[in-house]
Amino acid sequence: MPAAESFRTGAEPVAESTGEVIVDQEFLALERELALFLRRARASSGVLAREVHPELEPAAYGLLVRLDEVDRQRATELAAWFGVGKATMSRQLRALEELGLVAREPDPADGRASLVLLTQEGRDRFRRVRDARRASYVQKLADWDRTEVAELARLLNQLNTRAEG
Question: CA of 18: how far to CAs of 11, 21, 25, 30, 164, in Å?
Fold first, then answer.
């Protein structure tokens, strides 16, 4: 039985010996599928970013997602969330500000700091694109049971949580 089939059917793991290295077929399948998924996600981020604003960098789209989730956050917290340096975050936020998609306001907890938030235009543009993307997911996964969609989300969350540490 091919490795992909054993992975999908839940059969016992298939391992093959290649010299001294044991190759675990399930992890090879995982690596292959994640690589493909990530390639497509990067390409999709570019498309989504341009739909929000023609000059928006693909990497900045994730910032809009995060700011929509948390409402407002310090730039240092955003940098830590994404695992990037302060300089990278400052550059991305400056570009978003120049496009009118984000703004800064004083942090009420610390007047020396500021919080970054979506402008109304940024929120409107982002949500329009996000809603269209979700509709696309619904269409692509129309033949999936809702419990399968929930399980995929749960497993991806588990993978992302473990990737943090």
Answer: 21, 5, 12, 19, 32
